[in-house]
Amino acid sequence: MSKKISPVPRGYRTATPVLTVYDVDAAVGFYQAAFGADLLTRQTGADEYTAVYATIKIGNSIIILNREAPELGLFSPLSLGGSAAHVHLYVDNVDTSFERAVEAGAQVQVPLYDAFWGDRSGVLVDGNGHRWSLASKFENVSQDEIARRARDLQQPAATLIAEAAVAEAAAFDVSEMPVDAVFADEALAEQNVAV
Cα(113)–Cα(80) distance, rounded to whole angstroms? Predict the structure, then answer.
């Protein structure tokens, strides 16, 4: 009887990110310098030189890298003008890891900050346009407390928006409107039409 083969390869998790990059070898080099990635596999194309696929491991997570191949519909965020997705990394020391990634060439999109949900976090963009959020947990916060803190943060913003709208309305001078616009507003109001 043959040994049963696991449907999930050893070392992989159920979900594995796949990032399409312009140059696999350059991306591997950046991820090694920025995040301490280990190269697990590297496959070349027909020329037996150019890498078309690689797997790396950051911490305990495997990430697959594909070379951009427009003929197959594989485009990097650089070719698409950005990406809606990002990779989130929990690290031991976010300040050190963030600085290391910036020194390796990452661009800061969101500087490090202490988030109300208990993470110290920031967002970087790599040379292929992929966004990486890095974080370290500094406080365990209950879901109820997170909700309360979110409401507290939103309240001042809502108040500022309302105050700005009131100030703008108070500063609005009808005498500066073109005469035709004033008459049009009055005519529509007389017809019971919402302006």
Answer: 29
